[in-house]
Amino acid sequence: MYKDVTITINGEEYQEHIPVRLLLVDFIRDVAGLTGTHVGCTYEGVCGACTIQIDSEAVKSCLMLAVQADGHEVATVEGLAQDGKLHPLQEEFNEHHALQCGYCTPGILMNAEEFLKENPDPSEDEIREALIGNLCRCTGYVNIVTAIKSAAEKMA
Amino acid sequence: MTDTEAGKGWLGRKLKRKEDYRLTTGKGNFIGDIQLPGMLHLVFVRSLHAHAKIVNIDTSAAEELKGVVAVIAGKQLAEEILLMPQPIVVPNIPANHPTFGPLAIGKVKFHGEPVAAIVARDKYVAEDAAELVMVDYEMLPYVGDMEAALAPDATRVHEQFDDNIQYESSLTGGEEIADQEANDVRVAKIFEEADLVVKRRYRCHRCGVTPMEPRGVVADWDHAEGLSAWITTQRPHIDRLALSDILSIPAEQVRVMAPRDQGGAFGTKAPFYREPILICHMARKLGRPVRWIESREEHLMSISQERDQIHDLEIAARSDGRILALRDRIIADGGDGCEGVYWGYLMPFLGAVLLPSGYDIPNCDIKLKVAFTNKAVLSPARSFGSYPARFAMERAMHTVARELGLEPTAVQRMNLVTEFPYTTATGFNYDSGNFIKVLDNLVEKIDLTGFRREQEEARKQGRYLGIGFGLGAEASGMASEVLVQMENQPGYGAAMVRVDPRGKVQVCDGDCSQGQGHETTVAQVVAHEMGISPDDVKHSQGDTDNTPFGCGTIGARAGSYKLSAVAQACRHIKEKMSRIAAHDFSVSAKPEDFDFIDGEIIYRKDTNIRTTFAELAYRIVMTPLDLPEGEEAGLEHTAYFEAAMPMICFAAHAAIVEVDATTGQFEIKRYMTSEDMGRVINPQIVDGQITGGVVQGISNCIFEEFVYDDTGQQLTSTLENYKLATAADVPHVEVTHAPTPCPYTPLGSRGIGEGVPGPVPGALSNAVTDALEPLGVEITELPLRPNVIWKLIQQNRQAAE
Predict the structure, then answer these.
(1) For B471, phi and psi rounded to 5 degrees?
(2) Looking at CA atoms only, how far is residue A71 from chain B in angstroms?
(3) Which of A5, B207, B252, B649 is deepest in the core (most CB within 10 A)?
(4) Residues of chain A contacting residue B19, judged by C-beta atoms under 8 Å apart
């Protein structure tokens, strides 16, 4: 079964004829070709590598069908830098070595971007709580927490 | 970057990683991002049972599904390709290496073994078709307990062998049986006469270091060029040779490429697995590109399982705490043993070799048996084989100390190796270092004395605080001397360095990163050696077509071997540039009379005599006229670095915990490390390796466990029930250093990272044991969970009453 959808990703409109069972993460990666959004737990919603934003709310794109995003605004990591200028989170992740393999990073950035809007001055514990939906296997989280804290300070 | 920043001083600097821009902007290039025109998708049908005869496989319904291109099962495949083992991926160690193919033939040996495969135009359709494959099984008895598996009358996992013993040997006393027996008698006598003997059974559970990116392969076949395969791998050059052999394709027609970015590995991507064989074969057979992306369920069912060991360990000690002898009978559950390079037993083998750790214990009697069982084969996990061994050894050291009424760190300290080079009783060489400095640094920084006062106060209030220490000597890569025997491959570091006519430098490297930041550290070394900016260095890796043979990104080799080879190659090129500069300037100078600084080459005795690095590069590559006699054009060199002495780095970890004796819950209040990583290339990258390794170790120790039920059903094949630590589960890890530069590497560096999780279980379980000492609780098994601790508290209370 197929359906026509219009999904806006990072401000660009995609009008596509897609199978209704297509997962949103596969739409983003395979149809739109935006491969910054990753698959880590293979559609279990546990690892958070596929975290994107729909209408500015962070969600796991492996737990949604693409047709559910019809008519909505999707933001992915590719849209985080604006006009060639990196987002403070991207800069601080680099500054504080908050990534190693970088596989989980896009999902964490998309989650953290929403989190800092809701809580612009978070404590270390609050940052750690906010990250429970994103698994990282390389860093031990230490530098991710530092980078988010530092980005919050830069954005204040 | 300004010119004054360039030049000297690139080593030891917190240079921001070159990799990060692409990885934070969604521009990484991982295996799942590789698309080829007309690419097909392969999906495996995997066994539903742990041990069963395959009676029939009906693929007809799957074949009829629209969009399916091919369906294949084990018997047919066995007629098309060779089977494992292939000599290139068999160690030079006497052990049983079972025959197997990518798809099960005749019977299945673990829950999750590949039985058939579907190739389809669409991955959703391939999944549909996989569900239509009907396999009839006839159940066989499940062999799941490693000790029972070793009994002579146990059901055999592999009919080709007489029993389930995959590997059995003494790691001490030499090669000859008679010498080993004499050694055992000598050690037994020491035990009889010792002031104290501590004997315990330590058990470590099955867990590992599953990375965030599962495995994957994209293979393409060209009639003239042969096979091109992108594989998630830690050793593309070995993959190339193994694929060439097993698929009977001449080696020059096999090109293996590691994707530029890989989402972590930690050992899991080091073996030569069965799946890539089939993907590459199907691409050739169909003449079309084929892709397989492993699902997390497949990953957790078939790889990244390690650490499954039992240690019956004994220590003989003098009343002052000096260790006199060590005896251990180790059993490991190797699973079905079907895995190129490692075969399930190499992890416990190395764990047994490294058992004496950093302690000077000349009298050891260590024996290991590895059993075949109906479980997934053990595959490497960072702190390769050593995690259970470190747990057993450090727990035993703590127990010795407490039985003698001594502070555990005093006993650990008294027994550390102090003179180098040192060879362990198991034959492993330690090059250099200062172990006591590393431990003393930790004891001071964590303030052990202050903590003991705090602990005493807390106990008066009925609170249970504890401190635990875990130590460990980690191999900083391994020389050919070890790897030729252990993995049938060399151990050197290799790098090809090329200076282009614009004065930019390219480094071609046969290994491949999975997050270690090699693009950055390689650039720092080149910048340091050549006096140019790291921005002017490009690092290309992992393509077997244009890199020197790389031994793999394994066992913390980069800091010791790879970077040493890069430095050597740079020095070779610098000498040539200096010779030609001397000739052009008509000065009688030795190569060392020229300084390479800030993009310039300056004659030290007359600093007016100078040229830029770029000008001289152009002159040599592009205008090779009037060269000194015997000098060739061009500026490139491939260097191979072999260690004069196998390097190690030593680490000590400390944990402070508070246990709630009513529930068994415990909180890690502090976690601190102290390491000797020699001369640091990039401190931020080193610290990142340590914090990451510690948290993996904590996660293994407390949360992760592969669980098989009584029939061999694997119950932990999703990240919902194979739990990894989240940010909220773990403490802020404090990293400290106590370095001693390595005298055997050109830069003084030591590789670090692979062994970081090793000291964690000792530190944590010693801390919990220390906290609960008033209640008489002693931890001997992992995982370390509240229910287990609570039960131990209850047992001890009942016994006391």
Answers:
(1) -120, 165
(2) 24
(3) B649
(4) 102
User: Nearest CA to B154 among B85, B51, B306?
Assistant: B51
pLDDT score of B1 more than 60: no
Q: How far apart are the first and last CA of chain A?
A: 48
User: B600 and B472, same structural domain?
Assistant: no
Two tokens at B312?
């019956």
Closest CA to B77 of B54, B53, B102: B102
* B143 interfacial to chain A (CB closer than 8 Å): no
- Closest alpha carbon to A50 in A138, A148, A135: A135
Claim to verify: residue A14 and residue A51 sit in the same structural domain: yes
Domain boundary among B614, B641, B668: B641
A142 touches chain B (CB under 8 A): yes
Q: In what order do the strands lie in the sheet with B648-659?
A: B464-475, B648-659, B666-675, B733-737
Q: Whole-angstrom Cα distance, residue B142 to residue B709?
A: 10
The more confidently predicted of residues B556 and A86 is A86
The mean pLDDT value for B262-281 works out to 98
Give the A:B interface size as CB pairs under 8 Å. 184
The confidence score (pLDDT) of residue B646 equals 83
Q: Does A99 contact B124 at a Cβ distance shorter than 8 Å? A: no
Strands B505-509 vs B537-541: parallel, antiparallel or unpaired: parallel
Number of Cβ within 10 Å of residue B436's Cβ equals 18
**Amino acid at the residue B524:** Q
DSSP A28: I
pLDDT averaged over every residue in chain B: 96
- Bridge partners (DSSP) of residue B675 are B651, B737
Tell me the one-letter amino acid at A41: C
Cβ <8 Å between B264 and A137: yes
How many domains, chain A?
2
Q: CA B558 to CA B520: how far, in whole Å? A: 12
From chain B, the residues in CB contact with A22 under 8 A are 124
Structure tokens that stand for B799 in this block:
């016994």
Q: Dihedral angle at the C-alpha atoms of B586, B592, B593, B598, nearest 10 degrees?
A: 100
pLDDT tens profile B273-303: 999 999 999 999 999 999 999 999 999 999 9
Number of residues that this document lists for chain B: 801
Q: Domain range holding A94?
A: 88-155
Which two tokens mark B231? 């594989």
Angle between helices B683-702 and A142-155 (to 10 degrees): 120
**Interface with B, mutate which of A27, A103, A123, A139 (most B CBs under 10 A):** A103
Does residue A72 sit in the same domain as residue A118?
A: no
Q: Which of residues 359-418 of B touch A (CB under 8 A)?
A: none
CATH of the domain at B714: 3.30.365.10
Give the A window 74-133 contacts with B, CB below 8 Å.
76-78, 80-81, 86, 90, 93-95, 97, 99-106, 109, 124-125, 127-129, 131-132
Q: Which of B17, B30, B695 is facing A97, going by the closest CB pair?
A: B17
Q: Could A140 and B691 be called an inter-chain contact, meaning their C-beta atoms sit closer than 8 Å? A: yes
Strands B216-222, B226-231: pairing is: antiparallel
Q: Is the ipTM of this complex over 0.95?
A: yes
Q: Is residue B207 part of a domain?
A: no
Convert the pLDDT of each residue in B313-360 to its tens digit.
999 999 999 999 999 999 999 999 999 999 999 999 999 999 999 999
Q: Give yes or no for a contact between B29 and B263, defined as CB atoms under 8 angstroms apart.
A: no
Q: Which of B466, B462, B383, B463 is nearest to B655 (CA)?
A: B466
Whether B525 and B448 share a structural domain:
no
- CA dist., res. B416 & res. B360, Å (int): 6
pLDDT one-digit tens code per residue, B611-657: 999 999 999 999 999 999 999 999 999 999 998 888 899 999 999 99
Query: Given pLDDT bands bounded at 50, 70 and 90, which one contains residue B801?
Result: confident
B-contacting residues in A 36-75 (Cβ below 8 Å):
36-42, 44, 46-47, 49
